[in-house]
Specification:
Elements: E1 3-7, H1 12-22, E2 27-32, E3 44-48, H2 54-57, E4 66-69, H3 79-99, E5 104-110, E6 123-124, H4 134-153, E7 156-162, E8 164-165, H5 174-177, E9 178-179, H6 181-193, E10 199-204, E11 213-214, H7 233-239, H8 248-251, H9 256-259, H10 267-274
Helix pairs in contact: 1-6, 3-4
Length: 276
C-alpha cells in the first residue's frame, strides 16, 4: 500500500499498532490530539489533529488506501462530551475517506455496542446492537455509519468489537474477554490486508477457553489468535473473591460499563475489578 492513516496513535492500542502498520505501507501517517511521540518510524509522519474538525481530518486522508480509526474518548461520559470525538469524529473519518476514494476503514468498535447482552448467551457477530452506555451507543452509530457507507457508497469497513485489550488479563471477567496486544495487532493487520471484506464486524478477543463471543461467521479475515487467558487463570482465581451472580459487571458483556449510570465513567470500576 502507498499510505495508511492511523488515528488515536498516542493511545495504548495505537502505540502498539504503529510499528506494524508502518511495515504495511510506503507511508504511515499517524495522528492524535496529543503531541508527536519521539519514536516515529523512518516512513512515519505525525500530524496533531482534532477528530471533531473536518478541516483538520480531511487533508490527512488524501492519497491514503486505508484508515485505521482508533481515535476516541475511551470511557463513558455525558453525551455532550462524547459528541465531538466519538460521534462527529466517526462521521468525519468516513466522509473524508469517501471524498478521497479510500478503499477501507478499519474501526476500533467495542464490546459495548452489545454490552447489555448476557455474558452466557454465546453471541456471534450477527447480534443486534444493545449498547450499555453513551460510549457504546457511539460504537453502534459508527458501525451503522460503516454499513451505510458500504451499501450506498462502496466504502469497505471492518468494525472490530474489542473486548479487554491489556498486556495480560487483570480480573475474572478478563479470563473470557482478554485480547492480548499481539493478537490485537494481528487482528488489525488482517482487517487491513484481507482481500475483500464489504462490511464486516469481528470481535477483538484472544483464543480464550472462556471467550463469551464467537468469530465463526468471519473466517475469511484470516484472524487466528494465539494467546489464551487460561494461562493466567490459577493466579487470578486465587486472588479474586467469588463472583456475585447478580453483579452486572460479570453477567453482562459490557462488564462495569453495563452497571454504571449513563454518563458516569466506568474505567475506574474496571481498575477496581483488577484489584479483586
Amino acid at each position: 500500500m502507498k499510505k495508511i492513516v492511523l488515528t488515536g496513535a498516542r493511545g495504548a492500542l495505537g502505540t502498539s499498532l504503529r510499528p506494524a502498520l508502518a511495515g504495511l505501507a510506503d507511508t504511515l501517517l499517524s495522528t492524535d490530539i496529543q503531541d508527536a511521540p519521539d519514536d516515529l518510524a523512518p516512513n512515519e509522519t505525525y500530524v496533531r489533529a482534532d477528530l471533531a474538525r473536518m478541516d483538520e481530518v480531511a487533508p490527512l486522508l488524501e492519497g491514503a488506501d486505508v484508515v485505521v480509526h482508533f481515535g476516541a474518548r475511551v470511557d463513558e461520559a455525558p453525551f455532550e462530551e462524547l459528541l465531538g470525538p466519538n460521534y462527529i469524529g466517526a462521521y468525519n473519518i468516513w466522509e473524508a475517506a469517501h471524498r478521497h476514494g479510500l478503499r477501507r476503514v478499519v474501526y476500533a468498535s467495542s464490546i459495548h455496542a452489545v454490552g447489555l447482552c448476557e455474558t452466557a448467551s454465546g453471541i456471534d457477530t450477527r447480534e443486534p446492537h444493545r449498547p450499555d452506555t453513551f460510549y457504546g451507543l457511539a460504537k453502534c452509530f459508527a458501525e451503522d455509519l460503516g454499513r451505510m457507507y458500504w451499501e450506498k457508497r462502496g466504502l469497505e469497513a471492518v468494525c472490530l468489537r474489542i473486548l479487554s485489550c491489556t498486556p495480560k488479563p487483570e480480573n475474572l471477567r478478563a479470563l473470557g474477554t482478554w485480547l492480548s496486544h499481539r493478537d490485537m495487532v494481528h487482528l488489525v493487520e488482517r482487517a487491513v490486508l484481507a482481500p475483500t471484506v464489504g462490511f464486516t464486524v469481528a470481535y477483538g478477543v484472544s483464543n480464550n477457553d472462556r471467550a463469551p463471543v464467537s468469530n465463526h461467521t468471519v473466517p475469511f479475515l484470516g484472524y487466528r489468535p494465539q494467546d489464551n487467558a487460561e494461562e493466567y487463570a490459577a493466579e487470578i482465581e486465587a486472588a479474586a473473591p467469588e463472583a456475585d451472580p447478580q453483579d452486572m459487571g460479570y453477567t453482562r458483556l459490557g462488564g462495569p460499563f453495563a452497571k454504571v449510570r449513563l454518563g458516569e465513567g466506568a474505567v475506574s470500576l474496571i481498575k477496581a475489578m483488577g484489584k479483586g
